[in-house]
Design goal:
341 residues, ten-stranded mixed β-sheet, seven-stranded antiparallel β-sheet, 2 helices, elongated
Length: 341
């Protein structure tokens, strides 16, 4: 009987020792130093990139906090949330032995978007007549003492090699010393709210005044400034690489617009994305995703209705200023226009 007790005691010690070794091995193999980083896309699309790191982990399982799961052996995954909100993401780091460590992170996702309208300028020739019309002539300097005469000639507006080119030229034409083009979507396309992106490269030269902007679609019954004006981007050749975004409306017309500016290195030699996020509560302007000007929108302002787009390059005038006598020609190139809602 004494031998049986001794055998059972030895067996129990052996089992305990085995379990202890197993637990020690699992503890040593358990993923440690688990870290989770999140990177939200700047395009307000709801896309988030998650990067998990850990010692001893051979795989990761991501719980995105909305019932969707995804596994990864690298620790890096990208997921697009279909609905805005605040989500608690759980990452389970697993070792080769099956030991796990769970780490949580919180992510705030802005409103997901869908492409509402776009102009890619991929068809060579004249700008798409289904999307664009023209303002022609000079119309008494367009209210700004401008010097150019707007035409619908291919010399001044043409699509080639994937971009729209609006060319300002020094030439005698109908009694004026410069020609250019002013395209507008009036009567063809308008929009209210959303985020607009315009990828463009700007002209250089003293007196040049390119603009990407919009006017209230009710301008025929509510003349400017009652209709409202949104200048998404204006650039003055005499102040190279400095762009402006401005709102004009009653009480804030002419030089009294509500304006903000920023420096854009290489604005005339490289493409940049000029954007506006427009809601019932604000108008937010950015270059390459960096916001530099925000204006609160209220019910008594004219920025709660449809607007149409305008693309043009002016010469001189109240804002363009003095013209370089050596100027011959320069073009604004527009790669695309995309509106998301």
């Amino acid at each position: 009987m004494r031998y049986l007790r001794t055998y059972m005691l030895v067996a129990l010690v052996a089992v305990a020792t085995s379990c202890s070794k197993s637990n020690d091995k699992e503890a040593a193999d358990k993923p440690a130093n688990v870290d989770v980083k999140t990177q939200l896309s700047t395009d307000n699309s709801g896309t988030v990139t998650f990067t998990a790191t850990s010692s001893n982990a051979t795989s990761y399982e991501f719980d995105f906090g909305n019932g969707v799961y995804q596994s990864s052996t690298t620790g890096s995954v990208t997921y697009k949330y279909p609905v805005a909100g605040t989500y608690t993401v759980k990452v389970t780091a697993k070792s080769a032995s099956g030991a796990v460590t769970i780490k949580s992170a919180q992510v705030v996702v802005s409103a997901a978007e869908a492409l509402f309208w776009s102009e890619e300028f991929n068809t060579p020739g004249a700008p798409d007549p289904g999307k664009w019309g023209y303002d022609l002539g000079n119309s008494n300097g367009w209210g700004n003492n401008e010097l150019e005469y707007y035409t619908n000639r291919s010399d001044n507006a043409i699509v080639s090699n994937g971009t729209l080119k609006i060319t300002l030229k020094k030439e005698n034409y109908n009694g004026f010393g410069y020609t250019s083009a002013r395209l507008l979507s009036k009567g063809k396309f308008n929009f209210k709210y959303g985020r607009i992106e315009i990828k463009a490269k700007l002209p250089a030269g003293g007196g040049t005044w390119p603009a990407l902007w919009a006017l209230g679609s009710n301008i025929d019954t509510a003349p400017w400034p009652a209709c409202g004006e949104i200048d998404i981007m204006e650039h003055i050749g005499n102040n190279l690489n400095h762009v402006l975004s401005t709102l004009h409306y009653p009480g804030h017309s002419g030089g009294n617009g509500v304006s903000g500016g920023t420096t854009v290195p290489n604005a005339s030699t490289e493409f940049h994305i000029y954007s506006m996020n427009w809601t019932a509560s604000k108008l937010e302007f950015a270059v390459d995703g960096k916001v530099f000007h925000t204006v609160a929108n209220t019910a008594d302002m004219p920025f709660n209705q449809n607007f149409f787009l305008i693309l043009n390059v002016a010469m001189g005038g109240n804002l363009g200023g003095a013209v370089d006598p050596n100027f011959s020609s320069a073009a604004m190139e527009v790669d695309y226009i995309r509106i998301y809602k």
